[in-house]
Amino acid sequence: MLKAIQDYVKYGKFLFSKHARDEMETEEFGEIKEKEVSEAVLSGKIIESYPEDEPYPSCLIYGRTSESRPLHIVCAYGKDDGIVIIITVYQPDPGKWIDFERRKI
Asked: How many CA atoms lie within 13 A of 82 on its CB side?
């Protein structure tokens, strides 16, 4: 799934949900740009999978921008429909994550 998502992002064949755009604009650690989302997805790895999500399976990707900013991106991938949707984007709070990859209990 990651390789397919990265290929779609690499060639600009993805969409942002309204929620993702709202989160990008109001991020508490500073606005997140579209370019940063692309960079983080392309350098990222899947840290959580949500195969039962509807209408498409989704996953949480952790990646870093070219400036080393950590980002979490939830992406839905519709293989049969040939679509990637960025559901939400945020800069993870280090108080809630271990190395930005595992949730603190």
From this structure: 3
List CB contacts of 62: < 8 A, sequence separation 6 or more.
40, 44, 45, 47, 70, 71, 72, 92, 100, 101
Could you state, in order of their start, the residue ranges of all structural domains in the chain? 2-74+82-92
Residue among 21, 30, 33, 39 at smallest CA distance from 85: 21
Decide: residue 59, CB within 10 A, 0-12 exposed, 13-18 middle, 19+ buried. buried
pTM: 0.94
pLDDT band for 95, please (50, 70, 90 cuts). very high
